């Protein structure tokens, strides 16, 4: 029997506590499956006295996560502190420097410092595993890095922020507006301390940067993502998209193009009857397309104690079994740095605007679209009680540049009221 | 740089040819990701002269797969011959006996001889990998064995035969009957040489036996599966299930119960708006439920050249990277043998019968159900033009034994015509 694998866990919030629970509940199962005992040597968190519902007195305690990372009675440092810099980053570096493997759920840290950390780990012969950082309980890092290793990945997409998907699907189901549902999420504890991480698309963007790195062999490039949050989505858009057979999702899309790496995280329309369109509530979904596998869809809980702890412990089991590979699936020194490509591939768009109710208004808008080379697939004008008429277009495939040109021209006219809404329609 | 990993491929049908294509197309990608070249030393197939669309002259040739397995210029024997015994089994044993790792897509062989082969492999320090054996391109073996290793798995379910799902969804979409669609599948080449492997549920049963072994730490027990095919599903059932909000799927379900291992592969009703209910055509879906992860849904192509070759090559990449683990996720000698438990957990059922059109017929049937303790959730009687009236019941949860008692009693009466149809409704 191999020696036990000894863990140190930094951060005892929901996920950390969940990991301790699994270690206690499934000690025998884990040993049967990995061939060695998995033990917990010591933990670190802010408050030693807080009751976390699991007994901690059997384990060593460190106030400082860096001190935990340096202990010589741990083999794996489990980082569940969070934050892209500060104690999390310091402790992970200390762990690597003192010969520990690292398991982390920290998407922000990897999106911003992934390449540097991967190089450190590989130089030291250590591994960094981070299944829990992307899409909670879904083993998508493993699927992409290992299961699909023989594929040239052509596109990765995902709905990876449960809070945003909860808000968008509840807007549809209840007819409540964005603000009311934002407040509901705040009450339910669904929001990060800085809610912009959720509703601004930042958190989901971190996840996309990590997936894109693995998929395309590039260094994680969070700054290269076009990010747009869901704060401006109105109930009208939800309903009118539905009326046209679509759902609005905060969708991440990454693909490698001839002009660089395209990464977008933005509200998009997807067909209501597609797997992404059918995804409701806080569930996450990742779609991976490869030249051999065609399309793989993974769906599961994107957050929560059990699912996230499941992912953390899956990584721990891999290390216990001796399954070791480069952080992003190939040596960090070989990761490319590609220019960020603004979405160049043409797509259909959803366009909503309020037309001033006077003769020739629609003709003028249609003419502008035509002059910009944007052709119209479907158009609907809705009944109205005020002086403006809600009008909806679904365009044929067009470039974003042509669309922006048309939008700029429309703003110069006196026939539209307020700002037009343009949302990309993603073919999935 | 590590030495190249040298393959020998036995079986050059669609999948084998697809594997050769990936090796040729992605040599550089595979080397970048695994850190070593992956080369093909030799192949074996029935006909040396057949044009398979890929050049084979660069590789050695063996008429006999056993001779290929024994060659000393291969590290990994890739078995794509198929069949639970005969040349496939002989060659795999020869490969293990001569120190080769094995990658196979052979579900029948593993369902029937999995434990024996796993013991051989583990005694020899070799691995057997078989991602392609279950659900084609979906990396479900990896998800279950590795990603969810820290979970007690509570249930595994899946739609894992694309041909059956194609037939069932086309019956719904086109209104054609089973026989017409069976003929269509035969023409399209969707059927195994022995079509009963597909439509009889055998092929899907092999896959379920493998998943259950990993999930529950038991030796694969194909003979313990209750198997029922789709041959008896009538168009009426498809339509009437839809009318009640359900779809009919050939669904595999495995769960560990207090009385043993329950494994069923049978046509079931699932809610039309569930992920399983929405699965159309030849796509496969596997649902895994674990105590920590809750529910994971994996969806992708269940067959075809690219997807299956992707899975085979994912296994090869794991071996190239040195990722090695026990065949069923824990040592074969520790796999339990559990009694086969006939589905004991109560479930709602769909019951369809033709009532003889005379006074008191419905009352009699209802009384029989009541006497057996089967209570009715919903009932519909449909219009009819002959002397029998189609009647449909959805029961509340009941045991199969109680239902069988009621069915037996009904058969003794003179109020039903023909054989009643009873299909389980699976909560998913």
From TrEMBL, chains A, B:
Coiled coil: none annotated. Residues 350-428 form the ACT domain. NADP(+) binds at residues 10-17. Keywords: Amino-acid biosynthesis, Methionine biosynthesis, NADP, Oxidoreductase, Threonine biosynthesis. Its EC number is 1.1.1.3. L-homoserine binds at residue 192. GO terms for molecular function: homoserine dehydrogenase activity; NADP binding. The active site is at residue 207. Pathway: Amino-acid biosynthesis; L-threonine biosynthesis; L-threonine from L-aspartate: step 3/5; Amino-acid biosynthesis; L-methionine biosynthesis via de novo pathway; L-homoserine from L-aspartate: step 3/3. CDD domains: ACT_HSDH-Hom (cd04881). NADPH binds at residue 107. It comes from the Bacteria. InterPro entries: ACT-like_dom_sf, ACT_dom, Asp/hSer_DH_NAD-bd, HDH, HDH_cat, NAD(P)-bd_dom_sf. One of its GO terms (biological process) is methionine biosynthetic process. Belongs to the homoserine dehydrogenase family. PANTHER family: HOMOSERINE DEHYDROGENASE. This is Homoserine dehydrogenase. It comes from Seohaeicola zhoushanensis.
